[in-house]
Write a structure and sequence with these properties.
Distance between the termini: 45 Å
Strand order of the largest sheet: 2-1-3
Bound molecules: glutathione
Number of strands: 3
Protein name: GST N-terminal domain-containing protein
Organism: Cladophialophora chaetospira
Radius of gyration: 19 Å
Number of helices: 11
Order of helices and strands: EHEHEHHHHHHHHH
CATH class of the largest domain: Mainly Alpha
CATH architecture of the largest domain: Up-down Bundle
CATH topology of the largest domain: Glutathione S-transferase Yfyf (Class Pi), Chain A, domain 2
InterPro entries: Glutathione-S-Trfase_C_sf, Glutathione_S-Trfase_N, Thioredoxin-like_sf
Structural class: mainly alpha
Shape: globular
Number of domains: 2
């Protein structure tokens, strides 16, 4: 019998989109071995601060999360990369043998970029808003001690990760990392162009010329979409192959199915 899991996600969370696109391309490549029930979390309106979410799903109060029964998963997976590696056990097309080491290295580099820094660069108020949302719940004297401790922990997570991500130095560092990363992708795409891809059409559709998207494609395509959506399209200038690659991917059935015509940022962002 197929195993069953729950994916907690949000439509405008880049890491959730990375996981959902991973699942979509993996399912395209082979029939499903796992059933994933999707559970939206309204992080724009404090859904991640609920007692259930903080105490029973993810103490960090972030999405995405993959949860299964104790026999399937000892603990819920609370990082998009961990979730992707876990899924790859069932979907080998995500990490083709020939490129496995390169994909792992590039995925680690991609996730070393702080997406919050690049997204909320011109919205420094965002970190304080996140703290205030927690304070509002904490102000209720009727909440349980257990829930209060969970909220205090969430506050620590926000303080440690969000405000520091928006300093000028931090943003610059992340911009440089992103630019260097995109240059690497441009070079890889240029190299793929010289050979025929697995479909024999010449020029790569996916980064390594594979027929199916790999985990790297599945995480990179949302990242490029996010850069464009937050007005950072100029980071792609001189990287025509990267842009053309992303534009091809955004036309696929899998991408359209995940995004349903949405942008990667919430309506009030822009
Ligand atoms: N490193 C984590 C990042 C998770 C994360 O920061 N998620 C954001 C959305 S992309 C979130 O849940 N934000 C709501 C909050 O922090 O309260 C991953 O790769 O999954």
């Amino acid at each position: 019998m197929a195993e069953r899991f729950t994916l907690f996600y949000n439509d405008y969370s880049i890491c959730s989109i990375m996981v959902r696109f991973t699942i979509a391309v993996a399912n395209q490549a082979q029939s499903a071995h796992v059933i994933i029930d999707e559970q939206p979390v309204d992080i724009q309106h404090g859904g991640q601060l609920s007692e259930f979410y903080l105490c029973e799903v993810n103490p960090k109060g972030t999405v995405p999360v993959l949860k299964g029964s104790k026999s399937q998963l000892e603990a819920a997976l609370t990082e998009s990369l961990e979730i992707t590696y876990f899924l790859a056990e069932q979907y080998p097309s995500l990490f083709p043998n020939r490129q496995i080491d390169q994909i792992k290295t590039l995925l680690a580099e991609l996730h070393d970029i702080n997406y919050f820094s690049l997204t909320y660069t011109h919205k420094p108020q965002r970190a304080a808003d996140m703290e205030n949302a927690v304070h509002q719940v904490l102000a209720d004297p009727k909440i349980s001690n257990h829930y209060r401790s969970a909220l205090e922990y969430k506050l620590k997570v926000i303080r440690a990760t969000r405000a520091p991500a928006l300093t000028k130095e931090m943003v610059e560092t992340q911009e440089n990392k992103a630019l260097a990363f995109l240059s690497q992708i441009e070079e890889l795409l240029a190299a793929s162009e010289t050979g025929k891809d697995e479909r024999g059409t010449g020029g790569a559709f996916w980064i390594f010329g594979t027929t199916e998207a790999t985990a790297l494609d599945a995480h990179l395509v949302p990242f490029i979409a996010r850069l464009v959506d937050v007005g950072r399209g100029s980071m792609l200038s001189g990287k025509n192959r990267v842009l053309a690659y992303a534009e091809r991917a955004w036309e696929t059935h899998d991408w359209k199915q995940v995004m349903q015509g949405r942008k990667t940022v919430y309506g009030t962002y822009l």
